[in-house]
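Q: What does the assembly look like in three dimensions?
Context provided by user:
Components: two
Sequences:
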Amino acid sequence: MLILLRAVIGRDLRLAMRRQADIVAAAFFFIIVVSLFPLGVGPEPDQLRRMAPGVLWVAALLATMLSLPRLFADDHRDGTLEQLALAPQPLALIVLGKVIAHWLVAGLPLVVLAPVLGIQFDLSQDALAVLTVSLLIGTPALSGIGAIGAALTLGVRGGGVLLSLLVLPLYIPVLIFGAGAVDATVSGLGPQAHLSLLGALALGGVFFAPWPTAAALRVALE
Amino acid sequence: MLEASNLECVRGERSLFADVSFRLDGGEMLYLQGTNGSGKTSLLRMLCALTPAVSGEILWRGTPIGKLGEEFRSQLCYLGHQNAIKEELTPLENLLSAARLAQAALDEDAALDALALVGLRGREDLACRYLSQGQKRRAALARLVNEKRPLWVLDEPYVALDPAAVELVAGLIGAHLQAGGLAVLTTHQTVAVPAGAVRGLWLGDGDATQRSR
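A: Here is the predicted structure of the complete assembly.
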């Protein structure tokens, strides 16, 4: 089972490395959106500090969504998805591998970039640390939940818009608890409660999402 | 070993075929023919359990394939209409990752030999997007060289291939049949397979007839 998981992750990472433009595009989107806010709102430190968690989290959420439509679409187009569905292993396991690979490619760069970008908002060291941790816990949930939407809209024309409509409402709890953790730190309350809830969402997102995703993929392949 | 009874396929409102039945034993090949749009690919996808049949059932060694699930999939090698080749990867990487996903043991030397056999020597390390259509098909067919699974389902295996490659693929299928394997394939080209018994099945106009040669 682990061998298969490793094979799927290795294959997807190798594909991503050959197509670095995608990773760079999502990361640049994140950098640009976050950097535009301080320029647009003005250099008022108090205001910036209050806005920071929300801006960073919304930007991370949208950057993750950018790469979602391609999660299964490429495999669907060239027939690889059929081969994955016919592998002598549960399809959900393969989906889990693809979700992990998606997070490594689309989520992890955001986690690394966030503390650097947070400096622009005059966030304290504590707040930056909590921001990074909250993204580290939260972004896997975004990949997992997004996979359900990507599978459901597979092969649909104009699927990108539909995907956003399906997935954004499910992202709201992640956004609230993720940004809330940083907010709580800034205002002096502890972030533990928010982070625990975020962790619960991430576990649910990553380990339960593969089943509905696999079911949706089988329907798309019929 | 593989038995289908009274299969029916409906696409949208139209019934493509009904009452399709056949039986295939080790060493036999089913040669599926029919006009364009007669449901050949749909029938193949049913045999792989990718598409459920509207009615009728498919048995593998006496058990419905839906019940067997993974056990059936581990016996099946499907080569679809599309090549299932990743354009960014080289033929060698494609072959190795396909083997890893199918959980087949394939080392790099065996993979290189397989690619040389299908005429891709010297192209092993070239990304597949630089290959011609026929070469991509050859890269996809290289999977068959070391394929040990007993049931092969091939959708138009000869498409885009030159006569020498067609001969080669027919030889691979022949060797597979000789080793007791089963094959189901669709094609519009009449190609003699060197070994094994061939059954014919004609799909078209809502009825199916089975002929034996």
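Follow-up: Residues 2-221 of chain A form one domain.
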